[in-house]
Amino acid sequence: MIPSEPCFSYPRYAGASPALDDAYQLIEDAKVFYRGQLVGTVASVDLNAPASNYADCFVRDFFPVGLIMLLENREDVVRSFLYLIMQLRGQQEDLEGQQIAPGVLPASFRVQHDESGNERIIADFGDRAIGRVAPVDSMMWWSILLQAYVHYTGDIAFAHGPEIQRMLRMILSLCLQSRFEVFPTLPVPDGSFMIDRRMGVYGHPLEIQALFDSTLRAASLLLPESGSHWLLNMAQRRREILRSYVQRYYWLDMDVLNRIYRFETEMLGENVENLFNIHPETIPLWVQDWLPDDAGYFVGNLGPGRMDFRFFAQGNLLMLATGMATANQRVALTNLIEQRWTDLIGRMPMKLVYPAIEGDEWRLITGSDPKNIPWSYHNGGHWPVLIWPLVSALLKSGRADLAGMAWNLVEKRLMLNRWPEYYDGRLGRLVGRRANIGQVWSAAGFLLARYFLDDPGLLLRLGIDEPSPAEVSEVNS
Ligand code: GLC
């Protein structure tokens, strides 16, 4: 493909509305080529972006773009992207005295051209990023995109190739490695996923657990004959335990809150109620007023003596969209989104975290991060990219009406404001203080949500959601 050639010849929504056309155009403008092949898109086309790595292609940012590529018959681009990312693994440099685990994939990469026109890829494994944290979620988004590719195209042969098999085994072995842990959830350092700087999201953040579940599902792509049987069994078993653990212990509704409020502490032994030794004094004041009676959500983090009561959107939405929440939890969480619409959606779907941390808490937890001041960026800012998981979650709950309402809010403002990365303020009325414009995943999220709204069945066809056991037996009978 010649770099100036359009990537989509006549995409599904061409001419449907100026905002949809503009969103496709932004993806076109963001194309990254390597050896003449389209392999990704930059995070933002804003030449004045506050950090130079916005000109990189990020694995997590490419995910919604990758799904659009699949829907627009550009599966070749997804294949090239998956292949390239996998090969970059070899570029990982040794850190002094230790190595980043071999299954870890880069957060981002860029193609550099020297004077004689030679191309070189530079990958960032967290060794160049602000805060220097290894991106745990990259390997997860990579495996979820691989599953989407296989589900949508039926090209299982690609996943069965020896290199992909090796990569999958590495990722699963890394996630399933035994550590010093007693929980089935996966422990990670602060800032190792979409929130990629200090925000008190170390330990067992919800988003990582939801991504972990979908990653374990990728074990079904392993060929059993290549000695992977044990890995497959272990992944299946872990997935069952992980699901029931998160459903049981992360869930918060008024009944659970009442129980925690009256918890006894310092309980030893088996079958105790207060397993994690949560002190009721740690329940923040806002929770009791904010949580509606017939609603609930999954708390942001859980560990010894610690329950992070903040509402983290991406984790909660993935719990819904991927079918990880129980049927009752699905109803209650959807009620919460509907009843707390002003706080969580406001003028721009959707707030990444509610509520913001302020004062001493902000100082101690973020390390006085001026980018993450209250109600901005990762600390209570609104991220338009979340429209695709929001729409997916609401469709899964049978609430196409709410999904449509949220999408209309995006359509009205995003193009007008030139596709910002995030919005600020309690309601998301302000364009983010240090937000880029021309942020590609904002446009991709918006587009992808449109495809889902018009054809909710895509969630199953792309393998984001999976049929429930009852649905599977219906099909087989
Ligand atoms: C910011 C976000 C991160 C995103 C990156 C590129 O660092 O926190 O999630 O991947 O920008 O858009």
Query: How many distinct beta strands?
Result: 13
Helix content: 40-55%
Rounded to the nearest angstrom, the distance between the terminal CA atoms is 46 Å
Strand content: 5-15%
Judged by helices, strands and strand pairing, the structural class is: mainly alpha
Could you say which small molecules are bound to this protein? alpha-D-glucopyranose
Helix segment tally: 19
Mean pLDDT equals 94
Oligomer: single chain
Q: What radius of gyration results from the CA coordinates?
A: 22 Å
In spatial order, strands of the major sheet run 3-4-5
Outline:
By secondary structure, this protein is mainly alpha-helical. The chain has 19 helices and 13 strands. It has a domain at 1-177.
Structure commentary:
This protein is mostly helical and 477 residues long. It has a domain at 1-177. Helix content is 44%, strand content 9%. It contains 19 helices and 13 strands. The chain has a 3-stranded antiparallel β-sheet. Strands 1-2 form a two-stranded antiparallel ribbon. Strands 6-7 form a two-stranded antiparallel ribbon. The chain is globular. The mean pLDDT is 94. Alpha-D-glucopyranose is lined by residues 43, 58, 60-61, 194, 196.
How would you describe this structure in keywords?
477 residues, mainly alpha, three-stranded antiparallel β-sheet, two-stranded antiparallel sheet, 19 helices, globular, binds alpha-D-glucopyranose
